[in-house]
Specification:
two-stranded parallel ribbon; alpha+beta
């Protein structure tokens, strides 16, 4: 018999958040911290470390939402194909963890209240929450990173090549160790597979950071 989650049996909530990616996770976290009776609804499954698909010869085996509710939902639009994640943690499960702050030039032409200076404190908070850190250079980088650096050299753009700060756990954590929110996480192995789901458990996703902070159904 299927066990109906307790929150589905209730008739009333003060707030209902749809989706558990960065937008939904941050919203539900702050609402719960403010004492609001809130629930979160997510269509996708939970993807613990080690469960993300890797066999590209079997796109029906965990890759596509259209096939057994897999990780990626492809949505054809007029001129583009939009691909989004379906899972507990939303897009934070498959983004590349890059934490680059937009330069002021990006905001030129925007309304006056929106500027780099205006966003600085919010950048700081997000960086703190996600444990954003520079990529340690004391280990050998993946071959793809070395090849990119070599290509930049050959093209005369070495000055523009850099390793961005990442929302990744680089600490040397072994099995059974947890982050500051009590969620099991291991240290990055530099496999370079951040954007297809981290099977190591080093990605600082919404499910590892924001959701554990608040008792939400």
């Amino acid at each position: 018999m299927y066990d109906v989650p307790e929150f589905l049996t209730r008739d009333h909530y003060e707030a209902l958040v749809i989706g558990s990616g960065f937008g939904g996770a941050v919203a539900v976290c702050r609402l719960a911290q403010a004492g609001v009776d809130v629930a979160i609804v997510e269509r996708g499954r939970r993807w613990p470390a080690g469960s993300f698909p890797r066999d590209l010869t079997r796109l029906d085996d965990g890759w596509l939402w259209a096939c057994n509710h897999g990780l990626y939902d492809a949505m054809p639009l007029n001129d583009i194909l939009a691909v989004r994640a379906a899972g507990y943690g939303g897009g934070s499960l498959v983004y590349a963890n890059v934490a680059v702050r937009s330069p002021q030039a990006v905001f030129d032409g925007w309304p006056a209240p929106y500027s780099r200076a205006h966003l600085e404190e919010h950048y700081d908070l997000a960086a703190h929450m996600l444990d954003v850190a520079p990529v340690p250079q004391d280990r050998e980088l993946p071959p793809k990173s070395r090849l990119m650096a070599e290509a930049a050299d050959r093209l005369g753009h070495r000055d523009g090549f850099f390793h961005p700060n990442l929302a990744v756990t680089f600490a040397d954590r072994g099995p059974g160790q947890t982050n500051r929110f009590g969620v099991p996480q291991r240290g990055c192995t530099y496999c370079g597979q951040c954007d297809i789901g981290c099977n190591v458990g080093a990605k600082n996703s919404a499910r590892c950071i924001y959701r554990p902070m608040c008792p939400v159904r």
